Amino acid sequence: MTSLSLPDIAAQTVPHATALEWVGMCGIALPVVFEQQRVSAVADAGVSLDDAQARGIHMSRLYLALKQLESAPLDCSALRRLLDSFLASHTGLSNRASVRIAFNHLLKRSALVSPLAGWKHYPVEIKAHLSGEMFHVELFMDIAYSSTCPCSAALARQLIQESFAKRFMDESAVDPKAVLSWLGTTEGVVATPHSQRSRARLQVRLGEGADALPFTALIDAAEQALGTAVQTAVKRADEQAFALANGQNLMFCEDAARRLHQALRQEEQLSGFHIRVEHAESLHAHDAVAASQWRW
Ligand SMILES: Nc1nc2c(ncn2[C@@H]2O[C@H](COP(=O)(O)OP(=O)(O)OP(=O)(O)O)[C@@H](O)[C@H]2O)c(=O)[nH]1
Fold first, then answer.
1. Domain with residues 19-149+194-294, CATH architecture
2. 216: exposed, middle or buried (C-beta count within 10 Å: 0-12, 13-18, 19+)?
3. What is the pLDDT of residues 92-108, one digit of tens each?
4. Residue 165: how many CB atoms within 10 A of its CB?
5. What is the pLDDT confidence band of residue 8, given thresholds at 50, 70 and 90?
6. Order of strands, edge to edge, in the sheet holding 117-131?
7. What's the pLDDT score for residue 2?
8. How is residue 11 annotated by DSSP?
9. N or C: which end of the chain has fewer CB within 10 A?
10. How far is the CA of 60 from the centre of ligand 1 (A)?
11. Atom 3 of ligand 1, nearest CA residue
């Protein structure tokens, strides 16, 4: 064993001094506690390097500080304490600190009709920033839903009308039983509208005084506004109810963005948001996309 001290390269000065906006680590494996459950998260942690002469920051200090989140429930207070400790460990070097934490939020969802339930995961992210006394937290969530094209539905209805006219218009008296049985065939309902799995990507900024991270409430509000969230456990009765829900919930991407905008405006704990919806069209190979924002 040698008694030589370890070289500390980070403490050196640099010949071409430049302050840096952000320096840190990305993709750190981190177990966190959210809503009484331990979840496997990935974190990015960093600070500004405002001392233009300093060679580097002390990455190990940020890494070790993240340990705080292994046991403390994940909320705004815990994030604030973490960022305070990032800056406290970089006095004289850094004035700003940030952390990003990403994980899958699991929620149990009931079937539409049958007494079944299953799990859905929602990719979520938390971004917290501290600059002087300015602390803010942003949340991101990704929500899958089903959308049926209103234009395609109208065109399909027109084809069904034409098919009906061809089959029954020459008859002097239309027999309801014949119509009923004809409606149950693919000659009757001759066309179906296209629908697609769609995604809503919500970014929100929490207002001052917020402590809890309201992922569940926001996801519930968004799914309620969209009306046709993707399902978990599905029996035929559930699938039929889903077909009815979609038929009564026709929407362009613009409709989805507007509904979400209205829903998020009701959320008093938010100070701003950005919405992006993507309808992964089955009509063509590109997506239909709409975005909206408030105080973003
Ligand atoms: N600043 C910086 N450190 C890096 C980088 N890549 C790897 N590291 C390593 O991160 C390790 C931890 O750095 P420090 O936190 O300064 O470690 P330390 O000097 O033992 O810890 P302190 O005594 O608390 O300063 C060092 O071994 C660095 O070489 C990089 O790009 N920048």
1. Roll (3.10)
2. middle
3. 999 999 999 999 999 99
4. 10
5. confident
6. 20-34, 37-49, 96-110, 117-131, 134-148, 195-206, 270-279, 288-294
7. 56
8. G
9. N
10. 6
11. 59
Dihedral sign from CA coordinates of 14, 19, 20, 25 = positive
Q: What is the pLDDT of residue 16?
A: 78
Task: Give the amino acid at 205.
Answer: R
Q: What is the pLDDT of residue 105?
A: 97
> From the alpha carbon of 58, which atom of ligand 1 is closest?
15
Ordered by start, the domain boundaries in the chain are 19-149+194-294, 150-183
Mean pLDDT (whole number) for 278-291: 94
Atom 9, ligand 1: residue with shortest CA distance? 59
61 Cα nearest atom in ligand 1:
15
Report which ligand 1 atom has the smallest distance to the Cα of 9.
Answer: 29
Q: Give the position, in ligand 1's atom list, of the atom nearest the Cα of 59.
A: 15
Q: How far is CA 34 from CA 22, 30, 79, 216, in A?
A: 27, 12, 12, 11
Using a 6 Å CB cutoff, which residues line ligand 1? 8, 10, 56-61
